[in-house]
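Each field is set out as follows.
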Amino acid sequence: MNEITRYMFRHNTWATQELIEFCKQLSQEELATTGTGSFDTLQMTLNHTVYAETNYLRRLSGVEFDWVDQEVLMDLDTLGDRISTTLEGWESYLNRDIDPEEIYYVDDGEYAVRAGVIITQAIHHGNHHREQVCAILTGLGYQPPDIQSWEFAWKTGLIWPVREEA
């Protein structure tokens, strides 16, 4: 199971990185744009996505990230570095024998939740907010990068043509 989950987190990180790189061409005014139904501004939505994913990892792995408890707006270069570091953490965590039924206590012990739910939420949460970023970009008149799994497979050599073209 961990190898399948590893693919999901690699795609998750790649997709976030693609959006961060794409957004580096935007003006500060464009980064401050919001969209109907979006989390916040475009940059804050990316910021929130990186913070949350790292926080999910922290809950499961116990690894501390000194910057997670202070959700301040990071520049795009820092966001890119932080999501890459988070992927390294997921890779390390997924090297363990993971019990999806293991119980974790969250929100200062107020709730109990199974590991499988936290992992599922980490993937879903990223997809949800990346789509919001894409919607804002579309509203600004940009064609967002293709961040679906098929594009990830093409860019990373995980899909290829069977027959060579003549």
